[in-house]
Predict the structure.
Amino acid sequence: MTRIILVTNASHDAPTEYLDSWFGKIVDLVKNSKDTKIVELNKEKANREMLTKIIEEENPQLVVFNGHGNESIITGHNHDVLIRCDDNEYLLKDKIVHSMACESAKKLGPKCIEIGTKSFIGYKEKFNLVHMNQKSKFEQINDQVARFFLEPAYEAIIALVEGSTTGEAFDRSQEMYKENLTVLLTSNNTEYNTVLASRLFHNYKHQICLGNQSASFSK
């Protein structure tokens, strides 16, 4: 039986393009895996109709949202609403969710857990992403400023793919946040140890893992 990851990559502006590019590292990680399949809904395909169709047909165990949102919604391409609180969050029942959408762990996350989502890793406030506004995927992946913000966030997904529980994946992500904060705070670059450090600390502080901490991305 194959493990299935469903990911929505909104990819319609600079922040979501960066999320899309960095998720490529996860794709590379499982490329040669015989037991893991990734279904990607990129750009125009990151819409509510396609999301519903794929969840019903493929029944993914892990759902990753790379897009915008607020405390009640997660959006896809051009801000099409994918999941709305008190509407269609039932689609995420029995699944592990990793959401990069701002504030989505504040109200939507707890509601998902209430209706049966196994675990929800996300941010209860805005997710800060500082970057150098690179254009190509290669340049975005090698953006050394964006790296401070995106490596810790995606470390949780890497940990899940490698077999960690959601609690362990969250801890790994938090540890990487702390490591990156140490680098920034001890830097001689004033912008690094002030502006970047404060924005990264915000992400570290507001990342949470809801639900069953022992859940895992199993077959």
